[in-house]
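Usage example:
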Amino acid sequence: MRYRILGNGEGEVDAKNIKEAMKKLGIIYEEYIPVVNGEPVVPEEKADEVLFVPVKYLYGIT
Amino acid sequence: MKCSYCDKKAVYHARYEGKYYCKDHFIKWVRKRVRRTIIRDDLLGKEEKILISVSGGKDSLVLADILSSIGRKLLKWEIEAAYVIEGIKGFRDRVPRELKEFLDERDIPLNVYTFKEEIGLTLDEIVKRGEERGLTYPPCTYCGVFRRWIINRKAREEGFTAIATAHNLDDMVQTFLMNVIKGDLGRIPRQGPVSGVSDVPGFVKRVKPLYRIPEKEITVYALLLGYHPGYSACPYAERGLRYSLRHYINLLEEEHPGIKYSMLSSLLRLIPILSKEFPAKGGRCVYCGEPTTGNVCRACQLKKELGLPLKHL
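Running the assembly step on the lines above writes:
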């Protein structure tokens, strides 16, 4: 299964599910939104390609 | 995983309440909570002229979307947006096209103000001037103070009854802990969902309708609306105390879901207690007339230090 991280460079990691991938990638769920086809997904859900969008890169000055 | 309320696919898992939400139910859920916050905390009345401070980031646009969806259907709200161009070369030197389109789709007029016109210098020029004069303030100090000053003044002059900002749950908790860590307890009473020097004539209240919504849920809401703001970071952004706190609070939330709400609850309970210890003193700045807690507002203090012209009222 492929996982991509936006903002931290793109890479692939072999994992069975999103939660395991996040652990292998060393990222915290609260700081990232896993997105499939433009929509966020629940962490346990499986997908062919997952994009991790870091919350901090979507952050604007309010 | 299915939505806890229908058979559709879930797009979000609220761990702190153990529920799953599909796209439609997620959007309804967020809007309902914001509406409930506005009513319970008495943030806005039935008739208001609201100025939303927008940055083009996800938070302020989600706020614009929710306020326009609530206010236009049920209430007599007049809503406009304010965008401040600080003048940071290559980052904040024009109105983003996506922002204009987003607001046009919701019939929200956009007011654009610039540091150059209102302060006399762009932020880049202010930072340079500050360095030349030996001032040690970080760029974010000038930016925050002057942005608030411009928006407050414009709101007052143009008859707005409220300024809405997009501070979210994460912002509230981070600022609260920063004030505790720095021993700046006098700032905590001013951290409530309605803030400002309310006993000064001409004061425009500042409200935070998103203060109970976690940043992550605002991001999900923005993604579901199809809004993907640019990923460029401010060149002046620093990895200070807030950045570290954000990381550690997220770690805690991961281990103990709901901890951000517990911290918010502590903050809300402390505000009335600390308000007695640190009562707000309302007055008007002798130079610009804006509400301030002393004789001279922070913006005019900075202008003075930068050698910018000031004149008494």
